[in-house]
Amino acid sequence: MLGYSSYAASDAVRSYPPLGHFEVIDGVKLHYLDSAPGEAGQSTRQTIVLLHGASSNLRDFAISIYPPLSLQYRVIAIDRPGYGYSGRPTSNGADWINPAVQARLVHDLLEKIGVRNPVMVGHSWAGSVVLAYALDYPRETGGVVMLAGASHPWRSEPSFHNRWPAVPVLGDIFLHTLAAPGFALVSSQAVARNFAPNIPPTDYAERAGLSLLVRPDNWRANAEDMRNLSAFLAVQKSRYDELHTPMAIIAGENDTSVSPGNHAKRLHKQVAGSKLIMIPDTGHSPHHAHPDIVIDAISDIARLAKSDAGARNASENMP
Predict the structure, then answer these.
(1) For residue 95, what pLDDT band results from cuts at 50, 70 and 90?
(2) Does residue 197 have a cis peptide bond before it, meaning omega lies within 30 degrees of 0?
(3) Taking the CB of the first residue and of the last residue of the chain, which one, N or C, has fewer CB atoms within 10 A?
């Protein structure tokens, strides 16, 4: 098992090398894909920032909505801290790298590469990050698009494969021996369940580089995120009435991974002026099942963001 796991991790790196650029933020190397590097300050195009969900990486967007969005916008897809090829800061036992910490790292990355007033798009787990971003940087957020995003706490316990990595000694044994073969056995079923009732794109797991997850550090980061998110959202939800940026909330009516009733619909009720888009016969990946609907929603928020930014600039420049 140890030999197989080591081979699987190495093979994932060989098969799915980095696609984009790197920047070091607060000592953490972040990997991102930028459709127009160096464009800052030279273009009036709105910037769209794409953040992936759990067990994933930026390739999920690279094979879906990133290319068509890039025809009109500057688009940046980021490996969240600990995923893909982004590093993850150590918590030193004080806390975990929660959505607010991840939002801060993303914010500082965007600031470093000259991004202003972005539309933040968060799929699944990353919905919590874009909400944290908008709450902590309201004047620097052009808009928010929740894409089957998590916004509220839930009652179910974490799965065993997310609990075990936290167990001293046994957690390391699990990560270095059982995680990779377990992934090989159940990944196709997990993908099908996540997309249902839609059919996953052909060779989705391979094209999305999902096997990058089997690297022990990546699996540990993902497990930590999954164990702790609900408790974080139990606190963050009390701040949603502070949100005044343009927001679209997209969810599949048949999503069994992130319940639309517990997340999308509750968030819509709390955020004045938000737009709720419920897509029938759709599961947890609307950007694959119905990319046109998702792109149209992002474009609507981008127009509002640009309009709001113009009005704000005009107001600030008045004598």
Answers:
(1) confident
(2) yes
(3) C
CB burial of residue 205 (10 Å; 0-12, 13-18, 19+):
middle
CB count in 10 Å sphere of residue 156: 6
Each residue of 188-217: pLDDT tens digit? 999 999 999 999 999 999 999 999 999 999
- Kindly provide the residue ranges of all beta strands, DSSP E only, lying in 247-313, ordered along the sequence: 247-252, 275-279
Give the position of tokens 């993303």: 106
Nearest CA to 31 out of 94, 95, 105, 90 is that of 105
The pLDDT value given to residue 290: 98
> What domains appear along the chain, each with residue ranges and CATH number?
2-313 (3.40.50.1820)
Placement of tokens 């701040």 in the chain: 239
Upper half-sphere CA count for residue 234 (Cβ side, 13 Å):
7
Cβ-based neighbours of 13, under 8 Å, separated by 6 or more: 212, 215
Amino acid 313 reads N
The answer to which of 36-40, 125-129, 190-194, 285-289 has the lowest mean pLDDT is 36-40
How far, in Å, CA of 213 to CA of 83, rounded?
7
What is the number of residues in the chain?
319
> H/E element holding 139?
none
Sheet holding 28-34, edge to edge: 21-25, 28-34, 74-78, 47-51, 119-123, 143-147, 247-252, 275-279
